[in-house]
């Protein structure tokens, strides 16, 4: 028992889960399984101030209700506060086209991260970490994938991440604490269960000390990952035109990690194939469909991403700050407007609020639509206006429209119909922050 608790305490200290200045208040994500029950018990015995949250996914009927009641009874017996959240996972997954496993995980973390600003402890253990490493390897991954589940992510800490499931069950037996078993974990109907139920037992036949070996190797993997990640972040930056600029004086591992970080920043799940495609485009010009409606373009050692025009579409009342394509668009209402206070350049980015018609939308340009810019005297095709930008940036350029069409184009200003005049009483100023990137 003592060695188990010392191991958990060592993990907490090694990964700086609770350092000076951090609260000792911890919320445990309690499912009722062996892992989370042992986590609750060990944190209490180590002197932490603990409460719990239980998420009922409503997926297993009476078994889900049994788990909820078990958690309530356990917390009552230990004198620990518990909060129960019920979520309709199936309905959420159908609406968002997600697998049950993915949807349940997403909802669970949304609930956990929406809690008060205390630390949140989840009960992932060393077996889970190894399963994740193997799962990542089957799909292709970088060093971050090989290291499995991170011990710390934001406010989420994982004190059992270097403790085996066997040690966890032995600890509960010594304490005389029971737990519940999720029957879905015993069926090999998904990738993780296949790894847990079929692959790992065979690997343990080859090496009975598999988990001990894996734990020893992890520290080396983590050191290599941290070094390469730090070097990769020095390698690239995103310029004002939306191109990612990559330095060339680096090894292959650093370049691949830089590309992985760029893909994540662009909202694209990294994979060996995608990293390989981008790596080739860094060295030779071209354009490749990398994910659904997303294309990556290489040009003179720089890369950019292009998306189908339906990618960006955000209804907005043109008030306050709005996030658009990874940038901040700020709308400021100016009452008692006086045109004499503004020069011609400033007026281009002001629109008469009273002349807007119907609902307004922030979006990408559409096909061959046109706009009659203020003081131009003729209409122009928006696509041609934006041709001054690199191809990868055009779909990300901001267009504002009302019920009559485009009223504003990023970089070019407002349409003639909404141009401010001496009669304007209320104006709206449009300001766009530059794209954000690791190199900023």
From TrEMBL:
SUPFAM superfamilies in alphabetical order: Adenine nucleotide alpha hydrolases-like
UniProt keywords, alphabetically: ATP-binding, Cytoplasm, Ligase, Nucleotide-binding, tRNA processing
Catalytic activity: cytidine(34) in tRNA(Ile2) + L-lysine + ATP = lysidine(34) in tRNA(Ile2) + AMP + diphosphate + H(+)
Keyword Ligase: yes
Chain ranges of the tRNA(Ile)-lysidine/2-thiocytidine synthase N-terminal domain: 26-196
Pfam families: ATP_bind_3 (PF01171)
Principal cellular location given in the protein's record: cytoplasm
GO molecular function: ATP binding; tRNA(Ile)-lysidine synthase activity
Name of the top EC class for this enzyme: ligase
GO biological process terms, semicolon-separated: tRNA modification
InterPro entries membership: Rossmann-like_a/b/a_fold, TilS/TtcA_N, tRNA_Ile_lys_synt, tRNA_Ile_lys_synt_N
Signal peptide start-end: none
EC nos: 6.3.4.19
Keyword Kinase set for record: no
One cellular component (GO) term of this entry: cytoplasm
Positions of ATP binding: 31-36
Cellular compartments annotated: Cytoplasm
Comment on protein domains: The N-terminal region contains the highly conserved SGGXDS motif, predicted to be a P-loop motif involved in ATP binding.
Role this protein plays: Ligates lysine onto the cytidine present at position 34 of the AUA codon-specific tRNA(Ile) that contains the anticodon CAU, in an ATP-dependent manner. Cytidine is converted to lysidine, thus changing the amino acid specificity of the tRNA from methionine to isoleucine.
PANTHER family: TRNA(ILE)-LYSIDINE SYNTHASE-RELATED
Similarity comment: Belongs to the tRNA(Ile)-lysidine synthase family.
Name of protein: tRNA(Ile)-lysidine synthase
């Amino acid at each position: 028992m003592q060695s188990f608790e010392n191991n958990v305490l060592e993990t907490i200290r090694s990964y700086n889960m609770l350092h000076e200045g951090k609260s000792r208040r911890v919320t445990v994500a309690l499912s009722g399984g062996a892992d989370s029950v042992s986590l609750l018990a060990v944190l209490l015995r180590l002197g932490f101030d603990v409460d719990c949250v239980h998420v009922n996914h409503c997926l297993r009927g009476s078994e889900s209700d049994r788990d909820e009641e078990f958690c309530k009874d356990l917390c009552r017996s230990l004198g620990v506060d518990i909060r129960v959240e019920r979520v309709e996972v199936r309905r959420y997954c159908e609406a968002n086209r997600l697998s049950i496993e993915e949807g349940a995980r997403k909802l669970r973390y949304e609930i956990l991260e929406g809690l008060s600003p205390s630390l949140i402890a989840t009960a992932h253990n060393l077996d889970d970490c190894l399963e994740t490493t193997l799962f990542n390897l089957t799909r292709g991954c970088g060093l971050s994938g090989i290291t499995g589940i991170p011990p710390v992510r934001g406010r989420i800490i994982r004190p059992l991440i270097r403790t085996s499931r066997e040690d966890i069950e032995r600890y509960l037996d010594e304490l005389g604490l029971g737990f519940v078993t999720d029957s879905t974990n015993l069926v090999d109907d998904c990738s993780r269960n296949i790894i847990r139920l079929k692959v790992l037992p065979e690997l343990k036949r080859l090496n009975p000390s598999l988990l001990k070996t894996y734990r020893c190797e992890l520290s080396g993997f983590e050191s290599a990952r941290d070094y390469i990640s730090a070097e990769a972040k020095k390698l690239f930056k995103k310029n004002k035109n939306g191109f990612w600029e990559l330095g060339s004086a680096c090894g292959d591992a650093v370049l691949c990690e830089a590309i992985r970080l760029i893909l994540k920043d662009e909202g694209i799940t990294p994979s060996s194939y995608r990293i390989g495609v981008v790596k080739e485009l860094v060295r030779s010009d071209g354009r490749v469909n990398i994910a659904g409606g997303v294309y990556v373009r290489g040009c003179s050692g720089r890369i950019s991403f292009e998306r189908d025009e339906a990618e960006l579409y955000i209804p907005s009342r043109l008030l306050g700050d709005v996030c658009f394509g990874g940038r901040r668009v700020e709308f400021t209402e100016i009452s008692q407007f006086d045109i004499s206070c503004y020069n011609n350049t400033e007026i281009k980015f002001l629109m008469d609020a009273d002349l807007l018609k119907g609902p307004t939308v922030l979006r990408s340009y559409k096909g061959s639509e046109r706009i009659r810019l203020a003081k131009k005297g003729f209409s122009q095709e928006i696509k041609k206006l934006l041709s001054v930008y690199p191809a990868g940036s055009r779909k990300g350029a901001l267009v504002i429209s009302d019920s009559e069409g485009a009223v504003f184009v990023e970089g070019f200003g407002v349409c003639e119909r909404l141009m401010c005049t001496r009669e304007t009483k209320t104006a709206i100023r449009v300001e766009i922050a530059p794209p954000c990137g690791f190199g900023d």
